[in-house]
Amino acid sequence: MNKTVFAVLSSALLLAACSKPAPPEEPVRAVKVMTVGTDAFDTAYEFAGEVKAQVESRLGFRVGGKIIRRQAELGQRVKAGQVLAQLDPQDYKLAADAARAQVAAAATQRDLASADYKRYKELRDQNFISGAELERRETTLKAAQAQLEQAQSQLAVQGNQATYAVLVADVSGVVTAVEAEVGQVVSAGTPVLRIAADGPRDVVFSVPEDKVAAIKVGMPVKVRVWAQNAGLEGTVREVGASADPLTRTYPVKVALATQEPPVLGATVYVQPQGLGAAGVQVIKLPTTALRQEGRATAVWVLDKASMTVKSQVIQIATADGNEAVVASGLQPGMLVVSAGVHVLSPGQKVTIYQPKVAAALAPPAQTAINPVASAAGAMPSPVAAPAAK
Description:
By secondary structure, the chain is α+β, with helices and mostly antiparallel strands. Helix content is 29%, strand content 33%. Among the domains are: 31-36 and 279-352, conserved putative lor/sdh protein from methanococcus maripaludis s2 fold, CATH 2.40.420; 49-55 and 198-272, Efflux pump adaptor protein, beta barrel domain (Elongation Factor Tu (Ef-tu), domain 3), CATH 2.40.30.170; 90-163, Helix Hairpins, CATH 1.10.287. It has six helices and 24 strands. A hairpin with a 4-residue loop joins β14 (220-225) and β15. The protein is rod-shaped, with a radius of gyration of 49 Å.
């Protein structure tokens, strides 16, 4: 009998040892949640720009030649009529001398033809020659006169060519670029200097193709100067009709409404008013609430009735500062887990995290008295000790 009982107990122990232990219950995690609501979109489009003159000219010689002198330097302020550079004028002086000699020769031929015409006219009056002979002398005189006028015109052209060898400023302004140096041979029209004319200033910036249609002439613009951190007002004066071949952006010019514009070349930041969605009510979430589910973006939505979480795929429109703007997938009033999203699973039970509140401490005087009192009750009195002996 004892052997039978022992065998039964051994079998029970073996079966108990071979059975799998019960899996531990999944812990209920505490999570931070937030209620989905709408908020104003704060981010506005801002572009970097540069201050430029409304009128900026590239000056060059109207004739070709070798530059022998350049009086203007980069950043120099010049006045209208001031000499900026000069070409070697020797060839143009020789050409002017040749044209002057041609004028003298043509004048001599004209005088000779005029004298002949007068003689032959007197002979015709006395019927010594025919009328046809007089007409030939008249034609010769007219041809000589025409040659003289042609020579005089060529002399004037050569004189102009000599004056074109001197480059003068058309307007008062500042030299913003030097594109040719002394000793360089330039052709007619080659830019030598660039001058920013005195007067109104523009802010020039570039916008991408998807934003250029929203910018209109006359649109108000806020301008912030980077170096001074000062704000200015302006209006869009011109919008480029074609994109830059390299950057594929469109240039926009803004006229500044100030009597003291920033210095040329200053860096500014431009905010076109009415461009973008500033002030529009949108749903925004912190980036800690987002997680990647395959190729989609998702969040955990809390079901308050069952206190479980479920995955909700959402669409992100853009960013507003450090927050993500949700385009679709959420409705105001939903509860979304805002932290610890990577340790949750679908259907997992959670509790709402409650920040710990420190217990109210007792007054310091009362805390100090209580231990003394309890200690006094436990210790024997000094008077009772001798009596115990």
